Amino acid sequence: MAGAFPPQKRRAGAQMLVREHAMETQKIIVIVPAYEEAANIAGVIEDIRGNFPAADILIVDDGSSDGTGKIALQHGAEVLTIPFNLGIGSAVQTGYQYALREGYDIAIQLDGDGQHDASFLPEMVSPLVNGECDLVLGSRYLAGGGYKGARGRRAGTAFFSWTLSLLLGQKVTDSTSGFRAVNLEAIELFAADYPRDYPEVEALLLAHVTRLKIKEIPVTMRERTGGKSSINLFRSAYYMVKVFLALIVGFSRRRASRAE
Ligand SMILES: Nc1nc2c(ncn2[C@@H]2O[C@H](COP(=O)(O)OP(=O)(O)OP(=O)(O)O)[C@@H](O)[C@H]2O)c(=O)[nH]1
Ligand SMILES: [Mg+2]
Fold it and tell me: Which runs of E-coded beta strand occur in 4-145?
């Protein structure tokens, strides 16, 4: 029956089989940073399990006082409980350290507020399995439709995406997206070194200067339905200044060490 399909279709079919096999043999974990997400965390766990049952789920409960960790445990997720609030960067890094220690090949980062749609997980993982890149970034600005964020947030993201595109020499459209997937090389990097406050933009620069390859793919995002955003006007202003300085310092340091 080999002749029943044209060669191109056969090749695509074979590639899909290889990819599916590779996907099955990879050990995959979804790291979910969560702070005061009691209203959302059960839905997030069910969304991941329903769309990507092959992955283990790790909730990093960062000193929540609203029972986030307890609800996550009741829904069968692995839970790391940090006794007091360390902040998003340290919580995510804790997740990467866990992934490294437990021998995972691929780690996915997905927010605990329900904004990231787990039906995109197979597409996020596929470029890593194929060896196309080391870090996949889910971009809400490459996709039509979906929630694009409040106006101020969109402007901030656009500014950092523009800056980062210049520094990386590669177009980045959603630099503040926390929806990402990485391979073992990046797990090792982030387990050892991860920015503290507002880490998303800086983590991309860190990956780039460590010569990891980044690929953006389109995803749609949803609006937060419960709980509260951790970002307000004052924090946004702090975010802009802090991250911009960190980018400049990080990039200059790298240039200086290359010149030595
Ligand atoms: N572990 C941990 N998670 C946090 C902390 N602050 C926020 N998060 C989580 O990080 C994710 C993103 O936080 P959000 O407040 O939604 O920030 P955002 O998605 O960048 O901003 P919005 O567009 O306003 O939703 C959510 O899952 C939060 O629960 C923290 O201090 N520690
Ligand atoms: Mg959010």
Answer: 28-34, 56-62, 78-82, 106-109, 135-139
